[in-house]
Amino acid sequence: MYRPPAFREDRIEILHQTIVAYPLAMLVTSGTCGINANLVPFTLQSDAGERGLLQAHMAKANSQLADLRAGAEALVIFQGPQAYVSPSWYPTKRLHGKVVPTWNYVMVQARGGPVIIDDPDWLRMQIDALTGQQEQYQPESWSVADAPASYIEDQLKGIIGLEIAIDRIEGKWKASQNHPAANKAGVADGLMAQNPLSPMALIMHSLADSKT
């Protein structure tokens, strides 16, 4: 991933927080069928190994499984908040006009060797973990145990498990760090005018606060 110094994020705890907050990731492999990509929700075991362990499940009918079984390296791309940045938000536009549009975004890329797991007990554990992670925010949370046991057993027959021990992980936080303070403030104000709770504006403020 192209990462100019201003945008690099290598703190493992921040990268892990982003994976947990934005678990739906693009799973990318390259194998005999060429490049293959699918959206897959992952759970993270942050204390497993040096960089963590990703776990997921996917349909047995998914053609990407052939490459995963063959041991093709997996690239897992987690994308956090993103926002278009208008040049009209830069005070420097009024000074010299030398501004262009851009995009601010947060991204984490994790790589590692895949392991396929065909074990109903493991699958149930992973699904329980993923469901519990997401349902905790619901006013009336749903549990896998709420569905008939026979129905869950039938559903498990159509999926298979996936583990990826993270060998390499890197992050990119593109949040106007390469602009003067006035432009950063202008972008944050512009984003908040569109949405007072803009996730990207909050990230920009948190980056500014971390340097004070």
Which class do the helix and strand fractions yield?
A: alpha+beta
Say what the CATH topology is: Pnp Oxidase, Chain A
CATH classification, class level: Mainly Beta
Individual helix count: 7
- The CATH homologous superfamily corresponds to Electron Transport, Fmn-binding Protein, Chain A
| Oligomeric category | single chain
CATH architecture: Roll
Strand content: 25-35%
Instruction: Specify Rg, calculated over alpha carbons.
Output: 20 Å
Distance between the termini: 29 Å
Number of strands: 10
Largest sheet: spatial strand order: 1-10-7-6-2-3
Largest sheet properties: 6 strands, antiparallel
Fold and architecture overview:
There is one protein chain. This protein has 212 residues and is α+β, with helices and mostly antiparallel strands. The chain has one domain: Electron Transport, Fmn-binding Protein, Chain A (Pnp Oxidase, Chain A, Roll). The protein has helices spanning 12-21, 64-69, 92-95, 120-135, 149-156, 181-194, 199-210, and strands spanning 8-9, 24-31, 34-41, 43-45, 53-59, 74-85, 102-112, 114-117, 159-165, 168-174. The strands form 2 sheets. The chain has a 6-stranded antiparallel beta sheet. It has a 4-stranded antiparallel beta sheet with strand order 4-5-9-8. Helix 6 packs antiparallel against helix 7 (199-210). The longest helix is centred in the middle third of the chain and has 16 residues, at 120-135. The two termini are 29 Å apart.
